[in-house]
Structure formats: C-alpha cells, structure tokens
Amino acid sequence: MIAFKILIGCAWCLAFGYVGGCLAARKGYSPHEAVLYTIIFGPFALAVYALLPMTEAGREQAEVERQIARDSMHRDRLKSCPNCGREVAFTCRICPRCEHRFVPNVME
Ligand SMILES: [Zn+2]
Question: How far is the CA of 73 from the centre of ligand 1 (A)?
C-alpha cells in the first residue's frame, strides 16, 4: 500500500513537472529548470511560472507560431497564374504548366 502511494506521488510530481516545463517553454524560460522547480515546489512553482511575464524569446516563439498558423491558412487556397491562367496552390512558386515564377513571400 505504501509503495502504491509513493507511485501515485511520483506520478503527480512528474505530471506537475511536465505541465511546468511546457508552461515555462511557452514563455521562453528554461523548461529543465521549470521541471525541477515544479517537482520540488509543486503547484506553487506552477503558479509562479503562470504569473511570470513572457521573455523576449517567448514572444519571438509566439510570433513564429502565429506566422505558421497564418501560412497554413493560406495553404488550402488557390491563386491563378498571371501568365497562363492555371489555378495553382497558393504556396506554389513555379507554375507547373508554363513555369512562370511567382513573387515569393506575397501572402495576400
Ligand atoms: Zn502558368
């Protein structure tokens, strides 16, 4: 019974550690430190990481994620080739029919 309780305790610590690591990584802090602190201090460390402001690296990461989300929205859309009029995928760079080169990084 004691072993079972220790096992449950460890599982809780690891779960907290995992959540803390994810939270810290999202905000741009070291996930390894966060896992350690969260395992030691539990919900208290989790609350501290939840209240900490985002670092510069965290903001950059969030911007990259927003950019990826925006790009994936365009992925299913079509554009027409100005040279031959063929409908091609929005992310296409060279027309498969006439080999017209589209201007890169024009998303709108
Ligand atoms: Zn074309």
Answer: 23
Tell me, in angstroms, the distance from the centre of ligand 1 to residue 88's CA: 9
Contact criterion met (CB below 8 Å) for 78 and 89: yes
3-state secondary structure of 66: helix
Please state the domain extents for the chain: 2-55
> How high is the pLDDT of residue 98?
97
Query: What ranges make up the beta strands (E) of 4-103?
Result: 78-80, 87-89
Phi then psi dihedrals of residue 78, to 5 deg: -115, 155
Percent helix, percent strand, percent coil in the chain, to nearest 5: 60, 5, 30
- Centroid of ligand 1 to alpha carbon of 67 (angstroms): 27
When pLDDT is averaged across residues 34-59 and rounded to a whole number, the result is: 87
Strand partners, 79: 88
